[in-house]
Amino acid sequence: MPPPTFTSPMAASPMSRLLHVRRAARFAAQAVRAYRLRSLFVISAIALGIAALTIIVTSIDGAERRTKEIMSMFGPDAAFVLGGDIKSRAVGQRNQTLSWSDVLRLRQSLPGAYLVVPMRGISNITARAGNKNFEVPTIVGATEGYAEVWNWPLAEGRDFTREDVMRGAKVALLGSAVAEELFGNETPLGRTIFLQNLPVRVVGLLTHRGFSGGGNNLDERVIIPLTTLTQRFNLDRKYFRALRIKFRDAQNMPQNAENLRSLLRHLHKLGPGDDDDFTILTADEIIKFVGMLKGGLVIFLGVTAAVAMIVGGFVLANLFYISVNERTAEIGLRKAVGAKSWELTLQFLFEAVILTCLGALLGMILGMALGQTLSSLGILTIEFSFKVFALSLLSAALIGLIFGIRPARSAARMAPVDALRGK
């Protein structure tokens, strides 16, 4: 008796091949439904890895979007100076190191600078207008040029003038969220609000920023002259918390920042071995920080996703080997009625890919739910896209093919008689 021949799927007609493929897919779907417990284990294992992968991709996309938002708000031509060295000194150490004399000297002597705005803030002050109250997270004190120095256009009204600052005028700029809470759709210009017991007249309405940082919405703030803030709330009149500086040459920001650092060190009489008692932030510093955060996130979640998906792949392979041993009678019967070896291989591969893709869908749902939680807590910015869907399904399908091929071939190599005998 001549040995049995293996019929290649390429040797059959296209219609015959299509029928064999459809039949393999149908048997695979039936097996997935029949072996529910095995399917649940594989789907759950793959879902954990895909959930981590989903968080990686969406958080990277979100970080890119957030970086662009920060850059647009911060501006490539600006520097932000904080009192105290926040990079190396412990929290709570002295941070009141910036003074009015620094502002005057910077305005006079800092090369390339055309706008220097000092500022400080107080937290959680109740604003009242008529019978409406709103708890303002931050009241900012600043000088003239606040809107321009922060690239924050006014929707209505005007910015502070030098006269407002010199005489400690009771005037204010409102963030859009505060204006909406206190006045609804009416214009706030010319209206009076009370900050605790301090009456101030609204002279400007800032445009909607739509950006949150540190858990606070920037649109939920009120800005008043710095002199008004220090006088009316009994704050230190010599020092303030921060400086915002705009330069004419955005292409030369590294040199601008170094000039700023050298001048401040000179003004603060710091020696060659002394640490800075201030911190300078520029757009480049922010990009570096976001890049480090993103890199650490990718490494951590990447390892987690890789381990989870590899574990899921081994779970799939082991369960499929067990399944092949349990289904020898089915395999023998399929071969006895004419099923080809390649068809059995294809059936088991279909099963593996179906299970891993179902795991991918579950993993994306878990990843999206976790992503929304992280977004609501302000930990990460999550942005979902078709790329996430495509990458997750592709990764899951590859896991199914890679880890399912050996069990599938093992099933296909069984001799029909031995399979029917359960050997």
TrEMBL record:
It holds the Pfam family FtsX. The keyword NADP does not apply. The chain crosses the membrane at residues 40-63, 297-324, 344-367, 388-405. Residues 304-416 form the ABC3 transporter permease C-terminal domain. Its main location: membrane. Residues 39-262 form the MacB-like periplasmic core domain. One of its GO terms (molecular function) is transmembrane transporter activity. GO terms for cellular component: plasma membrane. InterPro entries: ABC3_permease_C (IPR003838), MacB_PCD (IPR025857), Macrolide_Exporter_MacB (IPR050250). The keyword Membrane applies. Keywords: Cell membrane, Membrane, Transmembrane, Transmembrane helix. It is found in: Cell membrane. Belongs to the ABC-4 integral membrane protein family. This is Putative ABC transport system permease protein. It comes from Desulfobaculum bizertense DSM 18034. The lineage of its organism: Bacteria, Pseudomonadati, Thermodesulfobacteriota, Desulfovibrionia, Desulfovibrionales.
